[in-house]
Prior knowledge:
The chain is mainly alpha-helical. The protein contains two helices and two strands; from the N terminus they run E-H-E-H. A two-stranded antiparallel sheet has the order 1-2. The mean pLDDT is about 80. Helices cover about 70% and strands about 5% of the residues.
Amino acid sequence: MEECWPCPVFASFTLAFALQLRKKYGKTSVRVRKTCQVTKNLSQGKKNLSQVTKNVSQGKENLSQVTKNLSQGKKNLSQVKKNLSHGKKNLS
């Protein structure tokens, strides 16, 4: 993950808190890390890619089902043609 520059935090502190900061850090202001926009975009991109992958997988399953249905439809049509041919022979 990409490191970001620390961002200054501006706030009004009580004197006691400022003194605690000075004692701990040697200064009365601190910096905090902020998540980079690039990192946020990357995270969102990964989520989007995951969803697209799921959609593609679902699409493949749907295509497979459509192919099976088409094959069954062809078999049914073939049977109907045979039955029609037998029906014509019986009429003659």
